[in-house]
Amino acid sequence: MKLSKSLQSLLAALLLFVFNILVVAPASAEENINIGEIVVTATKIEESTADIAQDVTVITQKEIESGSYRDLAEVIRNAGGLNLVEYGNRGSFASVSLRGSTSEQTLVLIDGKRLNKPGDGQIDLNAIPIPLEQVERIEILRGAASALYGADAIGGVINIITKIPDESRTNLSASYGRFVTKDFSLNTSRKIRDTGFYLSLSKDKSDGFRANSDYDLNTINTKITYAPSQDMRADFTLDYNHRDAGAPGSLSWLTPLASQTDEDLLTGLTVKIKETILKLYSNNSKVHYKNPGSENNTHNNHLLGIDLQQSLLIGQSNLLTGGMEILEEDINSKDLFNPDNSIGRHSRTRKGIFIQNESTIYEKAVLTLGLRYDDIASLDRFSPKASLLIKLPWQTNLAFSAGQGFRVPEMNALFWPDTGWAVGNPNLKPEKSTEYEGSIKKFFSTTGNVRLVGFEKRVTDLIQWQENGQGKWSPVNVAKARIRGLEMGGKLRLNMLDLNVSYTFMDPQDIMTGKKIRFSTRHQIKGSTAVYPAKGTTVSLEWSYISNYVVQKGDPGCYFLLDGKISQKLYLPKVTPEIFLIGKNILDRDFQTTRDYPMPPVQFIGGISFNF
């Protein structure tokens, strides 16, 4: 492939960065980082939320520990501007989207490493093999982010940051609840001189609240770190998950004998030397679905990635960051019941390079310009983004940003076999978006903040399955959408109280039909509060009111969900037990996030944990 002049310029800039790594010792950018909530997802470098223009939510370790959360899906569900689509309990599929996007348009990462599967473009949150005990924080970046992350970041990015084992401790936990729900976990970490490691073993099992909704989930996690100096650290991770679950189907299409087995293996190596970061990782996923007498399918997804980035501080006002990414994607899907309907084995390579510059203007404003080039299976795409942060008096920030995003077609849509009623389309083009955002944020030192954000996004070449005139359904680039919305929220941190509140309004329009986009959200009111009335005592509540646009009769409407937790620590010599009681769907509301897939009724879980 002949490189364009623009690509040649970007490649030359990247080579300059590599030269800098080898020859020049770049100045550290740490002096520009403010103390407070630190995020890495917005600009790929660690910065304070007060120094970036993008709309980022940070779910901290303290918020995770004090809440009633049992898994990642429950944690993420409570974030504003986010829609969680669930098909039942933890044994079922759960996907996430941001700002009215689809789940395929939302990129999910673990420590900056991709999780989205090349087959369907999605990620099952309930199958992510990361226990909450090993999560440092979760960063949620809203808005188009393809200028940094390439494909699949139209709606935004969710980055799960895991802990660095820097102390010696052990946690043993067990709980029991309704529907014979049993959870057991062991987490231990050690720090020996320059080396640290943690090991996590967990087992979650339940009979389920519906017929054939039982599940058995087992995970193993380990992380080994080596840090001989402050300027160098290497991390190796291995995360494995095995889940056996019943697949009850929808209320309109019951599958009382169906079952599904999921296996996920994530391995990765991250090396950081000063301002240079290298990531190597492998993501293997296997799904086996079986419905006796009608279906027997296996779906294997493999992702092999390399990511390299370098930051360089130029003078006192410009922070330049550049990098490259190469991804090898492979799928192998088989229909064992009817081999002629198998998608088969397919592969593709993604290549991308990016450059970004942050310019500080008289310490009162920050202008960020970014551009990325991607080459994916002979599809070229440039993704620009620009943002301006203006620091007003009284710890108030005014920000504006504009950027483009895109999503490459998932392999299932490209290579779906001719089954007589459906066929794939190998000529699909990427979905493309342009998004504008404006915000104002007010910070109250270390006690909290409030924010108001408005955005508008236009998406073209949306992929939809339509009848192709030959009696078969096929995916085509036909749809267009306009999504605008308003987000507001705030955090309050006091000695005895933590409070989070958010409100989101969205107006999603299908430009082709003039109707609202089906299954989209109109209003969201979400919040959480944790009270610490006495030493070691925590009382927390999480609530969410969701109002959806009902485009067709029977679509999910609105619901209110309330969860809570009460816990008490007992400070004993050498061990700290904690007794807890968790309530899920406390008001026992009958609700659905996906049509004809009911969610669990009220459930209480009691347990105890020991910290050594």
Note the main attributes of this structure:
mainly beta; 612 residues; globular; 7% helix; 5 helices; disordered N terminus; 35 strands; single chain; 5-stranded mixed beta sheet
Could you give a quick summary of the protein structure above?
This protein is mainly β. It is built from five helices and 35 strands. It has helices at residues 5-23, 61-66, 72-77, 146-149, 411-415; strands at 38-39, 47-48, 56-60, 82-86, 94-98, 106-110, 113-114, 135-142, 156-162, 169-177, 181-192, 195-206, 215-229, 232-246, 249-250, 253-254, 259-273, 276-291, 295-314, 318-335, 344-361, 365-376, 379-392, 396-407, 431-443, 448-467, 473-493, 497-510, 521-531, 537-548, 558-569, 576-584, 592-594, 597-598, 603-611.
Can you tell me about this structure?
With about 600 residues, the chain is mostly beta strands. About 5% of the residues lie in helices and about 60% in strands. The protein has a 22-stranded antiparallel beta barrel. Strands 3-8-9-6-7 form a five-stranded mixed β-sheet. Strands 1-2 form a two-stranded antiparallel sheet. The longest helix has 19 residues, at about 5-25. The protein is globular, with a radius of gyration of 24 Å. The termini are far apart.
